[in-house]
Design goal:
This protein is of the alpha/beta class. It has 4 domains: about 160 residues; about 90 residues, MutS, DNA mismatch repair protein, Chain A, domain 3 (Orthogonal Bundle), CATH 1.10.1420; about 220 residues, P-loop containing nucleotide triphosphate hydrolases (Rossmann fold, 3-Layer(aba) Sandwich), CATH 3.40.50; about 70 residues. About 60% of the residues lie in helices and about 10% in strands. The protein contains 22 helices and 14 strands. The radius of gyration is 41 Å and the shape is extended. The N and C termini lie far apart (about 115 Å). The relative contact order is 0.07.
Length: about 625
Amino acid sequence: MKRLRRCSQELYNSEKFKFMANNILFQTLNNIDWQQIANQITFHSYFEDTKDIFTNNPQVFTETNINSHLDNISTLSRLLDDGINFDLILFDCVSDAAENHTFIKNMNKGLIGDFKQLNFVSCIIENIFELKKSLPHGEQKDIILELINDGQRLRNKFIKPLRTFVDRNGSVYLERHPKLAKKIAERNALETKIREKVMSTLKDADIEKRLQFQGYDVINDRYVIPVRSDSYNANIGLIISRSGTGHTLFVEPTEVRELCNKRLKIISEIDEIVNEICHGYSTLLSENYDYVQRVYKLILKYDYDLTQAKYSIHKGLVRPEVSLERDIKLSAFFHPLIDGCIANNIEISSDKHGLIISGPNTGGKTVSIKTIILCHVFLKLGFFIPAVEARLPLLNDIFYFDSDYQDLSHGLSSFAGETTAILEMLENINDNSLIAADEIFNSTSSDEASSLAISIISYLTDVKDSKVLISTHHQLLKTKMQTNEKFISAHVGYDFETNKPNYRLIIGTPGSSMALTIFEKLSSKFNIDPSIIENAKSILDQKYMTYEKLLQDLSHKKADLDKLLVENRDLNSQLKNQKKSMEGVLYLEKQKAFEIYKTKLEKQLDKINSLRRSDMSPKQMQKKASEFKS
């Protein structure tokens, strides 16, 4: 049976893989390291089924249901922040064993569940009922209240009776069931009597000297004593089993055989009653199959939504605003797999076709494109976004491919492999989509690659009404896109002081590939003939060199300008702080002078009042007043 289940699962997985392989979204997931991302996401899941869905077949949302789903994630996130322990409420005592899920999914097909599986059904119903105390008034609470109302019959006929002898942890106390109490008592009395007789047999002098060791055991529901094989006598009893060496025989004493037979008969009767009880409960659940499925699907949905909410809190994700105008705004977006990832900003208005990124290798072009794609994928899958602020359109298809499509097993070069992938995309892509290419056509002639890329980009934006994200080193492609007002040029920054990329995405201008500059800087650490780099420079077309030099100078000046802007902001901040500080000091000095003057006036007033109350003559008072003036 296990083998059949395993084979069925393998067939299911292979069929699912075929479906995924033909789906643009799942190709994109595979290309943006979804397995690693899913591993982090599913850390927050309870059920293995939920983990499998996130990893292999995540739910896709549309404009009709995305906002209500995001509302739900927001509510759950707020409740989690408030300290609500949903894991304890929803999954307490719920065993995630595969057979439990198999039973609940197929209980309408005549399956008879054991007490473990019946307890699983009971626990999820009880836990869903318990959830009502933690939910605020709204649609989700109304769903719970409706389930509670519809489940009263099942609660009275299934849950309450089951709880009289099966606790929530799954421990079964058959002696508490009215149909079993008498039989259990009979079995227990027989077992006590059998043990007493066995102990008496062990103390018999003739038997004692034949024993391999003191004590007894229960084998195949038979009470046996260990007799040495060379001392066995048929009068002792029937041999039930032997040791591995054959030196010990496990013998059922003749005195207890009849009692053991009676015990086995009672056990059989108990099993029959247990089967009858399980059959009755399973039939009841089958009759209420639709209701149980509502509860089961709801607890699975909560596990799914809570996974997204907990992941959002853990990673510091933000709820996106869904753009109906197809504009894109991401403030301080970051990649959730990269610790300490440099946060960047992009804004693509609805009238723009896309973003063209250039700049040095290892500068962050791939990370930038993958992160922007991931943000759109997250929205499509109902996740919050790795950014401080996010406004994104919900697009039909999201396609991402890199330049590594070499497939030697099928005789495909990198260019042929990439071309095949692009042709398949062009054949299947829907309108209103997002297409991203990292280092497009970097394995062939630059000018030919640029012309092909420009033509494909034009088709996607003009005919398919889609947006594009492209990274490239091709000069012609960079130049053409820079002069096209429908596209935004960008480049990844380079720190000219440390000679290292700074991973910042700079919007507005293309960037130099920096190949010769980086080679020249690095070669200074090696004993390399300087003529190599000089020869390389002389080989390049002068127009190309001038263009690349202009891009480098522009990038350098942009970096200097950014640094000056930062310094200017810091200086302005310092001046504002100094001004506030001086205002504070001046206020304190004024306050101090006022207090001194106030004190002097109060002293003079006290002296005047003192004179007024005294018995001095007018002449004496006049003399005293002149002293005050002095």
